[in-house]
Amino acid sequence: MVKVFKKGVLGSMTAMLMLSGFLVACSDKDGGASTATTSPSGSNAATPSKEPEKPAKIRVTLWDRANAPEGQNLGNNPIIKYVIDETKKVGLDVEFVSLPRAQESEKLNVWMASGEAPDVILTYSMDTIFKYAEQGGLWELDSYLAKYPDLIKNNKVALDQVGMYKGKRYAIPALKANTYSGPNMKIRQDWLDALGMKIPTTNEELYQVLKAFKEKDPGKVGKDKVIPWALPAINQSMKAFYYGPMFGFGVNMDGPSNQFYAPDGNYKNGVFTSSVATPEGKAYYQWMNKVYKEGLISKEFVTDVSSQQFTQQVNSGAAGFVDSNDTPWNLNVATRKSVPTATWVPVEPFKRPDGTQVMNKVSDFSMLVAVPKSSKNPDAVMKYLNWMVEPKNLATVQSGIEGVNWKDDGGVKVQIDPELNKKTTWVSLAGDLAIVQQGGPALNKEQLLKSVALSLPDQKQREEYANSFVLYYDIFKKFGKPNTVIDSPRPVAQKTVAAIEKSLYEGVSKVIISTDFEKTYAEMLAAWERAGGKDYDKEISDAYKTMKK
């Protein structure tokens, strides 16, 4: 794993600007107008009152993950209403613009080309930020950010790592408050117990477990219905991945983050090679091809582009193994509605041929917030982000209304009514609304127990909940490594990354289901090369050589 390269961005000049910004903010606390004035002659005569300033209109992207409960939408949600109402008090008129998560890149390209993008655009890809910055499509944000010291203070760790391009800031990274999370493998412990089997520690052991799930149906769901490994279509919006099994074959996460949800490649002897072109990557896909042919993955996974089939397989209790961003506890809640005895547990990273174990964990930063040049008011966007870092506002956009969705108990948010929360706080899931900070710090066992004191009245359930999260966090603490950060210009990636990702989404699916693996794998590799894969890898290799100087 290549060492993370961080570049500081908040120097003494910024500190001076922060101070001046603070003074400006204090003087403008009430919208720039005082309640009484003194006339030029020094008398107490009142001057004519000014017309109240019209709120600054900003349109904010909000990803649509197709998870809104019945009767709920962006126009009918108490948290959205809170944001709209409260930001008016600071002179903002906020409108949310829905963007289907599966169409993020495509739609964003259309918006940027047409000049119709919202004032706030979101992406997880630094290459996307670099591309639009190079094209002159984004506002430089240094001077605007400097006026908002609260935002700088809250997000400093993230700001010090990413968002810069050629020495100028073009994106505000969301802070990831709890880094002990990310893609992780989970398996049905109740199925293992029924078979007398242990949690797998290698890919070969996983294969044997999946075969046993298929042949012996420990969940009694029906041999024609059991899904040993639940996997949706491989695309930008997929809810499950294959990080863990691919790590097990020796593929690393040595490259910068991308939007293709799998380990991205290995850096050896000064050369980076994308996973698709490594011997380890080929061996993994050949193994996946075998697993698919033996019916250990859903036969229809390629058509499950919205992950609805995957969700149904988990919720119904038909699935035995997944690799996703979900926590084991959340899967328990979902599956136990159909199978009360279902128990999902985390799986430690598989032992690789060299004996090592590794898994990916999230970095200190998350999504990147940018302002397109078509926006008329970048300062209003910074004002919106600064409004959000105020503790009450951040707590609301993350968790819902205090006193309705949760109550405070010594700094711990205690859920009041989980069923109500599912109907109202769906808009906060995945941190799509709280775009300045995703989540809070990891809780210890005592805090975890306190957090569910009302929602889980049974002491045994509370203990299971707390123990589940403690184990989950401990695995990431022990084995997790973040992506490498390259915050230098990458013109090749700017031109090729979208085409590369598209070729892999299509190619990997074909390889997994192919009846002629060697032929289909060669076709995938050729498509990757045509999309610019080798040039992409060379650029990363060159960047790492520069970073090591």
UniProtKB/TrEMBL annotation:
Domain of life: Bacteria
Signal peptide stretch: 1-25
Low complexity composition bias: residue spans: 33-49
Record key words, sorted: Signal
InterPro entries on file: Bact_solute-bd_prot1, SBP
Keyword Protein transport: no
Region of interest called Disordered, as start-end residue ranges on this chain: 33-54
PANTHER family to which the protein is assigned, alphabetical: ARABINOSE-BINDING PROTEIN-RELATED, DIACETYLCHITOBIOSE BINDING PROTEIN DASA
Protein name (record): Aldouronate transport system substrate-binding protein
Species the sequence originates in: Paenibacillus qinlingensis
